[in-house]
Write a structure and sequence with these properties.
Distance between the termini: 38 Å
Bound molecules: fe (ii) ion
Strand content: 25-35%
Helix content: 10-25%
Number of helices: 6
Shape: globular
Number of strands: 18
């Protein structure tokens, strides 16, 4: 096990986490959650899909909800690259790694590359999207927790080290990581391209599966307000974990489950991480038992995640034994 260095210069220029494509059973229920309660901006909607964006986003969408009849899944997570030339370089990079890549047409995207990463996460890379008005000073449109922009994804995989190595080769920098005490056995890795702690996080477990998509809100008060507004709209029981403060990344956060079980994180802010001399911050796994304050996540936060379409998760060789809220309460008796 080892902590990899980011490739510099990168083989192609990934700029940020871009969007997620989720399927849902009832667009009306999804609209009530994401638009009425969570305050997302609707870029476009019809009987088959809703395209959503945050208040500061000038792109067409950061979240796509597609109506489905089968079990809800995540179709793909999206990454932005800087130019169309980067897409060509990305295609060559993935193909050199033995990973098939193909260009596809996706509504409201420029040229788009479909590929899976080394641990099977289905990705969608594009350089451009249809632009939309940035609503960041349209204060009359601010509702609920006022989500401003997508920030990162968390993916569950039984191969955290392999994912970390693969993304480092793509130029992603490791900002923080959680390892088993006394070893470099990686349990969580926080990887970034845009200059804050994460664009994509990999966590140990059966996968690949999508654990959550995270969006920024303006400040801590908006996280509390999210809970109040969700409760007023009948989504109070959809709050799964938090409000609380993370160790890695330090943000204040709350996790909600949408009507189909997809997990959304709202958090307040992150620090910058750009300077070349910044080394990854290490956390021992035991920190989860020794938090400065707050309760650990309930077991289902560790166990449950959205499947990726058509991909059967692989179980890890050694199942984890996370410190859960249930264990905390048993020990506290
Ligand atoms: Fe997160």
């Amino acid at each position: 096990m080892s902590i990899p260095r980011a490739a510099y210069p990168p083989p192609f220029n990934t700029t940020r986490a871009s969007h997620a494509v989720l399927t849902v059973k009832d667009l009306g229920a999804s609209r009530a959650f994401y638009v009425d309660a969570m305050g997302f901006v609707v870029s476009e909607e019809d009987g088959e899909a809703i395209y959503l964006r945050g208040l500061e986003e000038a792109c067409h969408h950061s979240l796509v909800l597609k109506r489905c009849d089968g079990p809800p899944v995540c179709e793909r997570i999206g990454l932005r690259v800087y130019t169309e030339d980067d897409l060509e370089r990305a295609k060559s990079h993935f193909e050199r790694a033995g990973l098939p890549a193909r260009f596809v047409d996706v509504p409201h995207h420029g040229r788009t590359l479909h590929v899976a990463d080394a641990v099977g996460t289905p990705l969608e890379l594009c350089a451009t999207m249809t632009t939309m008005p940035r609503m960041v000073v349209q204060f009359q449109a601010f509702k609920g927790p006022c989500p401003h922009r997508i920030d990162h994804f968390q993916v569950v995989t039984p191969e955290v080290q392999r994912a970390c190595d693969f993304y480092a080769e793509m130029g992603f920098r490791l900002s923080e990581y959680i390892a088993v005490d006394g070893t470099d056995d990686l349990v969580f890795v926080f990887l970034q391209r845009k200059g804050n702690p994460h664009d994509i996080v990999f966590a140990g477990g059966a996968g690949p599966r999508l654990h959550h998509v995270a969006f920024t809100v303006p400040d801590a008060q908006h996280i509390i307000h999210a809970c109040d507004v969700a409760g007023s709209f009948g989504f109070g029981t959809h709050l799964e974990h938090g409000p609380a403060r993370h160790g890695p990344g330090h943000a204040l956060f709350a996790y909600f489950r949408d009507p189909d079980g997809h997990r959304v994180e709202l958090f307040n802010t992150h620090y910058q991480m750009m300077d070349i001399e910044n080394e990854p911050v290490r956390w021992n796994l035991s920190y989860m038992r020794n938090r400065p304050w707050g309760l650990p996540p309930r077991a289902k936060w560790f166990r449950e995640a959205s499947p990726f379409a058509g991909i059967a998760p692989t179980e890890p060789a050694r199942p984890g034994a996370p410190f859960t809220l249930e264990k905390f309460l048993l020990e506290a008796q």
